[in-house]
Request: fold
Amino acid sequence: MKDSAPALLLVVLVILLLSLLIGAATALRGQGLRMAVLHRMQAILHRNDGVRRGDFTNVIFLHHSVGRNLIQQGGVRERLTAAGFQFWDHDYNWEGLTRPDGTLAGYSYGIPGDNTDPDGLARLFAQPAFPWPLNAFSGLLQHEVIIIKSCFPNSNIRSDEQLREMQGYYLKVRERIDRLPDHLFIIVTSPPLNPAETTPEAAARARTLSRWLQSDEFLAGHPNLAVFDLFGLLAEDDPTAPDFNMLRAEYREGTDSHPNRVANETIGPLFADFIIEVARAYRARLEGGTGP
Reply:
């Protein structure tokens, strides 16, 4: 124990030097290098706040505004807490981490460019993995169940070429996931767009991406990866409707693509129960000796 303080000091000094060297590449959007360094130091100092217990109950959800509303209006944190889970979530970098008790941690993991679109996720998952939260990816790995979601602009897929490009990014993410069987990963499909902000063609491609992520082609043989289909729960599924594959009428307000309170109150419990189910199933798989 008496050697831990010097070791911690050494790690802090190392991360300070690293942050200075890579500068703008890791600076938090709108906060600059100084704030990025301070956040990284806080992440290191508080790394034991949510100790992983080996039972896949320590969860983190990386999201932006749609995820925030789903958590707050859908009772996600409360439902997971009642089931014995520690539910952390990470919003935009300026908001940062929220602890399982619902209070702000006061720091973020510094998601590169604050980008949670597929290209940003691929960049995030390409970072080196360290035991300490020396970068954003290592910060996420402090938790056992890692949930990632791209927001609704990701459903504005303008061409088949862009669709294939997005699939390529998700394949890169999956490749990294395969090397981390001691963690469980959940991809949340991107929510659909309001009819005022999309076209039938773009909406159809968004549906194709959602279905592909749930397919055996993407999931088979990857036991520590699951997909929650937020798109499917939110999108109009009547092929004859003018808003087919778009945010359904009862879940939207005006031209805003953010799902409304009705949507969040309906889907929040489903999302929480899905997390609980897949986490317990993966834990049982490992305890049963079937391996990854």
